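It is worth pausing here to work through a concrete case rather than discussing structure prediction in the abstract. The textbook approach is simple: state the sequence, then state the predicted structure, then interpret. We follow exactly that order.
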Amino acid sequence: MFLDERSATLLKLLQHSSIPSMSAIEDQTGLTRRQIQYSLNKVNDWLQSNHYKPVQYKRDTGYFLPDAIKEEINIQLTKRSYVFSEKDRQQIFYLLILLSLEPLSLYHFQSVAGVSRNTVLTDLQRLKKMAKQMDLTIQYSKQAGYIITGNSRIKRFVIEQLIHEVLSGSNSQLIIECIWTGFEEHIDAIHSELERIEQQLGTTFTDNRLNELAYLFFSTNQLIGKGEELEEDSSWLPFIDTQEYALIEQMVGAAAFYSEWSHTEKLYATLHVISMNRIKDGSPLEEDQVFYEILQQVIEEFERLTFVHLHEKDQLCEQLYVHFKPAFYRIKYGIPHVNPMSERIRKIYPELHHLTIKSLKVLEEKLGLCIPEAEVAYFTIYFGGWLQRQGTRLDDRKKAIVVCPHGTGVSNILNYTLRELFPTILFLDVLSVRDTADYPLPYDLVFSSVYMRTNETLFIVPPILEDRDKQRLSKQVMQELYGYAVPEADVAGMMKIISKYATIHDAKQLEKELQVSLQTQKSATHTYTVKEAEKPVLAELLNEQTLQLEPVIATWQEAIEVAARPLVELGTIEDRYVTAMIESIEENGPYVVITPLVAIPHARPEEGVRSLSMSLLKLDQAVDFSPDKPVRLIIILAAADSDSHLRALIQLTNLLNEPENIQQMLGATNKNQLLEIIHNYSKEETE
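Step two, the predicted structure:
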């Protein structure tokens, strides 16, 4: 009686613990209910043929094996009672061809896998195609048997991947027997050497990676014995001076290593030790402080995107650092690493994974790296664990997207304002109308500056929210989500009470600040301030060079061209950016008219922005952007990214929120008068 791969996997799962339900088995194995039932029948047949009781089921326990037989089952799962799957045979044949010192024939593969000659030939044909995709060639000759030719670095990459797959598989021990029988003492000795390196470095490697490295270093020893040495790589040379290299030199001198290692091979091993996942880390490197500071910025960005205050951030940063330090070297030097949980994490925590990707943009920009999916998944786990630890959940919050004809510029300040206004809503992305059609994540709410068709709850909002807009929107959202709206605060009543006991010097300003304060308290339990470093204030962008006053211009298209002219001359935007702004309005309508008489034209950064900049054109006579939208103030916004312009844009929003400020600007007769108003709002934000 033989077990196939599925049945053996299911039996091993039940060997270690009970499984509460059929759906839990589906989740753990990835099999369908029908496949599971078939495998359970095979497991029961196998158990009964070996004089064991079959798998049992109880409502309060689930599926389980009787305790008395759990330990005995290990004895039964040997090569004689297991049918290797196609994937198993592929791994075995690939590793044998790569590592074996003796010539390999079809008989060797038949003997080790227990299958027919035709099956081996079919497997080898598939393997040849797989190898060809990696620019490797599998050949056969009577003298040398089956060999593999190609780049030595690619061969190492394939071996690393195969070792990871084998050791993390459910039937790893059986495959190990096929490849490394007779070398157990050597591999155990290398394992002990790696534990000694741990102690010397003051680090603790994860068990899985330590085990993988023991097999990898023995495999490297086998390759060197075959004459399969790596070519020198000058980018590795700086690691000769590290403590890790000195310890590797000692290690390869041990009896377990029968081959002579070159300094390139020692550097190869050094890089793997430096890039190993670890539980703690006490080994200093030059980059340590840089890593730590950037990871702090990643945490800040995650807080900003999720509107969550993370507790004990220093401890979290330390954990991220311990993970990222070796990950950095894996990424930089192309050392392969597979995270078996990646797909599962994306599936179970899509929003958290998505926001983690966005948070890691800081890391990618600072270090000039592209973070691979396997590493993103690890960061997702860390952030998810930290949120769970402090009792915070993202998956029970309403998810929202912000939609604007262009996803940058004014839409980013709208996104920022909405996050501040509704901290309990998880804002996922700022999108264009077209982008929403293919957006992969589920969402509940849409905040859009233009009407659009959607099956989700839609809120139409102006691109820049004034206080009255915020109050109205808060009521709408509260009514939609919770069935009630928070009643308006009685500011007038409060003013009367204050006037009874205090002298009010500026009643209008006090009333305004009370209104804003109470609105903020209603809409948020806490706020998170965006880090303002390297974000210019409004007065740095709207200055003597970028302001213009003109009496009249015939068309809105010409008005945009004139308004943008200082930026073209300064070289901060290209001519095509001006064209893109005009085409956007022609396609989507005058959405850039954000308040009466004021327009803020903008387009995407990739459509011709060289650096962050703004310009302002004031007209004595309005130009019509549409029959009902006359404009006298045109403010060109050229955002180089989604973040650096926010400080200035917040100040501009505050300025335009006051109708009297707009009137003063319209009444200005020279640049100095305009600059005075702009400077007042640049100062106000920074004081």
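Step three, interpretation. The radius of gyration is 33 Å. The longest strand covers residues 613-626.
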